[in-house]
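so ive been stuck on this for like two days lol. basically i have the seq below and the ligand is adenosine-5'-triphosphate, smiles is in there too. i just want the complex predicted, nothing fancy, no docking runs or whatever. if the output looks off dont worry ill sanity check it later, just need somthing to start from for the group meeting slides
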Amino acid sequence: MNNLEIKNLTKTYKHKNANEDINLNLDSGVYGLLGPNGAGKSTFMKQLATITTPSSGKILYNGKDIKSLDDEYRDLIGYLPQDFDAYKNFKAKEFLMYMAALKGLKKDEAKKRVEELLKLVGLYEVRNKLVSKFSGGMKRRVGIAQALINNPKILILDEPTAGLDPQERARFRNLLSNIGTETIVILSTHIISDIESAAKETIMIKDGKLLLKGTHKEILESMEGKVYTITTNDEIEINEIQRKYKVVNINRGMEYTQIRVISDTLPKYTNTTYTEPKFEDVYMFYFELEDAREV
Ligand SMILES: Nc1ncnc2c1ncn2[C@@H]1O[C@H](COP(=O)(O)OP(=O)(O)OP(=O)(O)O)[C@@H](O)[C@H]1O
């Protein structure tokens, strides 16, 4: 059994709820935590990682309060903080060996694990190079490796793809698929494509509150009937649509422009068709639609 139960989790900073009454039940698998800036993702993850304590509510691991499990729980966690910075004067392998020692791995075991991880994150060839000479993506990979060092049962990755280029993002998605299926992986992002293929479920939070947790299918179903494509070649109309609606994308063709919009009601333009929702619509629909509804 590998289960996390989050019950009425609330974290208050100076009268403001950074997390409010969050209830979730998580089993092994990858969960994408999605939300705009300031939604409360890091706060949520910090509580799971025991970096900060809840103001109220609790977290249970396999039915037991993590407060009472204490180090027993901490030994099961791997955590990549948002602002992770490996000690720059270390070489990659040296740094991971150091982290392994902190996690209590014996020397032989540590050597083996560090070697495995350097290969997994694609840094084996540069293992004896200074981390300070690494690119942002490589540093992030060192961060992911250190989070994996103790073979965690719960892996918490706070924006693991922040600052990565498309190639590094693809590499990260591959890496994720190689992390054991026996682990609860929670990764935060505001880039929907990072979790589209990798996550079994997406958890959305906004203003500190849980908005929705669901599989891709469930999330797409929740947007059913709200995505439209308007086809036009009238520039005045195009400008008006951009003002009135939340536009997911504009596809300018030789003769016509196709505009994909999110709307609660059928937009009243001559050539408007209902469109099957896609994952690319999720962010706009859940986090930016309110402004559009006010129009
Ligand atoms: N230590 C703190 N003291 C006071 N307020 C805080 C603290 N940490 C977070 N907050 C506030 O709590 C809210 C949630 O912040 P949090 O960092 O959890 O959001 P986030 O979703 O991770 O955002 P981002 O994507 O920008 O990192 C924000 O309004 C933030 O300003």
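Residues 4-221 form a domain with the Rossmann fold fold (CATH 3.40.50.300). The first strand starts at residue 4 and ends at 13.
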